[in-house]
Amino acid sequence: MNYEEILEVSRKISVTAGKAIMEIYNKEEIWQVQYKENHSPLTLADKKAHEIIAQELLARFPECALLSEEGEDDRKRLDNPYCFVVDPLDGTKEFIKKNGQFTVNIALAFQGRPVTGVIYAPATGELYYAAKGTGAFLEKDGKTARLHVSQRTQDPRVVMSSSHGCEQMERLLKKYHLTNLVRVGSSIKGCMIARGDAEIYYRHNPTMEWDTAAMQCIVEEAGGIFRQMDGSEMTYNREDCVNRKGFFIINCEQNKLSE
Length: 259
Fold this sequence. Notes:
Strand content: 25-35%
Structural class: alpha+beta
Shape: globular
Number of strands: 16
Order of helices and strands: HEEHEEHEEEEEEHEHEEHEEE
């Protein structure tokens, strides 16, 4: 499997999907917000982005399986060592709030591990990407920069969700006297750590595979640490797509928090 080719195609698709999202974002009259069984919001932008991504990925790489938040779950994917893990619009709540903090997430997992990751933030034009063993990068305004986590351990900067409160995290903030906080939506939080603008992100609440796969690849290739709350590795293309153990992202071991 040519990861460089997959990464290039994923980058192009994410931008195309992002343009479709922004067209809808700027026309509130066609948002048509609905709610799923789990009460999470669904918009026309989610659906349109999924159609673009799924159609192109499966056409270009038919040998790979696909797991997307907005697609039907074909359980045959469990027998395929290669599986794209996609969130067509990560941060739908932020999309609805119109704060620009939403992304397109596309990852490829091989034997349960993310080997490519792309995160595109349509509102800012920031394109983050990484492939296993080749580093992580940010492309914006025609310029490309390699990403590295910071070495900061004093007064670490903590990123937290804009839409999801967490009692466990509030206790950790008090225990470690952490006050340098930034609340941001979607996988942008992981990207902030990858680019050296934050050091700590703890997520105790359940998430889904498509929320973390691309982010994990980018963070790890930037030198960061991504683990489940019990310290084990996060895997993908699982039978149960819920990340039930939570996860944390840190720039270095010195910034690890414990209850």
